[in-house]
User: What shape does this take?
Amino acid sequence: MLILVDSEQLKNTTATYQINNLDTLIEASQFKATLAESLSLIGQVSQSSHAALIGLGKVAELQPAKIAKIAQTIIQATQKKFKQISVDLTQLPQEFHYLFALFLTQASYGYDEYKSKKNEFVLELIDLIATHSVLTTEQLQLVQAVQSGQNLARDLGNRPGNICFPEYLAEQAVALAAEYPDLLKVTVLDEQQMADLGMGAFLAVSQGSDRPGRIISIEYQSERSEAPVVLVGKGITFDSGGISLKPGAGMDEMKYDMCGAASVLGTMRALCEARLPLHVVGTIAAAENMPSGKATRPGDIVTTMSGQTVEILNTDAEGRLVLCDTLTYVKRFNPALVIDIATLTGACVVALGSVLTGLFTPDDKLAAELETAGQHSFDRVWRMPVLEDYQEQLDSPFADIGNIGGPKAGSVTAACFLQRFTREYRWAHLDVAGTAWNSGTNKGATGRPVPLLMQFLANRVQTNG
Assistant: This one.
């Protein structure tokens, strides 16, 4: 058993838990219950052969990031040793119980699909104990659903481009629908169908690759038939930059340019597990951006499905090209609102780093709902401007619009580009370029913003009934 301890309540711990010789042990070990500090109690607690105190620091100063650190400490210490653990939350304020459970599931993820030696994780079950009800049935179901969906998003993001390409994403959607035939329906457009619809911007990206592009729509319809929430995911399964070739250093991480699409698939799985009474459509713009003799050149002009023409000034600004046609395509679902999720700009990483997702929308109410969901799930967003003042940076002397807006406000002008294709419905854009994956020693997909999107959808259920 693991007992979470407030550093200012150490004196009460002995009486509360009847731990043998605890005062002496604390004094001898100089245990202060600082954040994530641990003290082994093997042999000291009669009802448990393995026990430890885990410091919370000062409970009055607790924040979600600190709770996440404690959860990571617990998982790292136990997942290779025990099949089941119990965590006593008596001294953890109840408002943190949901996030703590969510953080435990996030910390327990590991990816070893292509390693010959697999992770030796044995932890299967975590019991949460408190004097008052820890989690409601609905909260527990949501945690488990988010874990399943976030893990799927992370798995897809971590798979390499030679495995995870546009047709593979379509296969994953079909497999998911086969798993939940009562809830999901999948439609896949091939490149000929896209050409028939006039999707010149999308096809300008995919034509450089031998891997054909796909637009994948997954419709989730519980018992509700209202206008759907539509989630649109950028699915560039590998982004070389095309003719505007990226530098070689770090290019391996461009397999993560489909993390927006991965988050849509993950959210659809989570919806099926939570069985939220909503109507949701997930649509994925899946393509590979490669240089070849067939690739689009800087200066080429294409016509989008909306009829607007685009001068492609930089082939590495390809995400907005596949998205603009997809955002026009989803009008056929008569959406209540549309949220696109995309690893769209390095400029957003410069602005917000890896902590916050960039949120762009002209809709104040929708922005407030997403900000609230981000706080509740600790998958936070920061609202950025999407104003008409920036639109002139996208003007082209040869076409209706250029696909880049110059060196200033790159994430803003990218959002303004998308806005030109979304004026007929409520819309928000999430730039997850900084939050969808980690680099360095902890390299890997994060599965964000699945927690944010699921919390947003769950909140809509509570609000709308």
